[in-house]
Amino acid sequence: MRLVGCGSALPVASIANDALSARVDTSDEWIRSRTGIGARRVAGPGETVTTLATDAARASLDHAGWEPGDVDLILLATSSPDDLFGTAPRVQAALGARKAVAFDLTAACSGFLFALITAAQYIRGGTFQRVLVIGADQLSRWVDWDDRRTCVLFGDGAGAVAVQADSGGPDDLLGFRMRSDGSRNACLTLAQTEEHRPLIGELSSQTGGFAPIHMNGQEVYKFAVREVPAVLAEVLEGCGITAADLDWLLLHQANQRILDAVAERFSVPAERVLSNLAAYGNTSAATIPLMLDEAVRDGRIQPGQRIASSGFGAGLSWGGALLRWSGPAH
Length: 330
Fold this sequence. Notes:
Blueprint: E1 2-9, E2 14-16, H1 17-20, H2 28-35, E3 39-41, H3 49-64, E4 73-77, H4 88-95, E5 101-105, H5 111-124, E6 130-138, E7 156-164, E8 173-180, E9 188-189, E10 196-198, E11 204-206, E12 214-215, H6 217-239, E13 248-251, H7 256-265, H8 277-280, H9 287-297, E14 306-313, E15 317-324
Parallel strand pairs: 4-5, 4-6, 13-14
Antiparallel strand pairs: 1-7, 2-3, 6-7, 8-15, 9-12, 10-11, 14-15
Helix pairs in contact: 3-4, 6-7
């Protein structure tokens, strides 16, 4: 499997920390000191998971030099679909990728990494030759904007990569690990509401709906700073390399303190830790491909460089991967 293209898309509207203080009891200093976030993008009229995912996917197609008809599979990692039956087919139609099969994969903030690993298995097995892997979320519609503990954290966005089979070249997924622990699910949820309505006689039916995002921030932080270094250490050991051999550390963009703690654990200098939290906040499944595309576009990531990446979040789920970038510079 080779990584040969990337792209991203963001809503137009950006909300800075100071602007949020007009709605909730918060401040730029309070948010930055605890999270590293300075602003977040929020989808407006006409901007949805479908439109953001499509724009990011189209950009990755252009970067890879593919036509829509070249794509065999579209994997959309999202926890906030426009349609609970699946949003990936909408993206397929919007792109005009007529021969591609398309489906959603839900693993919250681990979603993109899990989807990329899934794509690799299809490619290595010979089932598909060219795959688009997209991470896109619009969590602004599921945030309680009166809860200062969570509303300051999340933003909307999308990122995508183009991956293809290449029997004659190196594999760009050098190693990976995936983990889940449902016993800790209650730490971070976007749960169904428990409302019922009369149906027939004494029977009732449940009314569809979801409560706003709930998070135990302290527990999620402790989980991340413990499990992310452990899973990355497994990946690096399995690949026979050390942190000193890495070019970049690219983690899910949840909290700058988590990024700093993991970097310190591996003695990775700050200049090799990729972060765009200050501009976009936590865009869930979009954070890793969004950051990847930004770093490729501005020339930081160069062909052949090795990237240690980790996604972690609701489920609870987490994973790590060692990647090599093979695509061209933007």
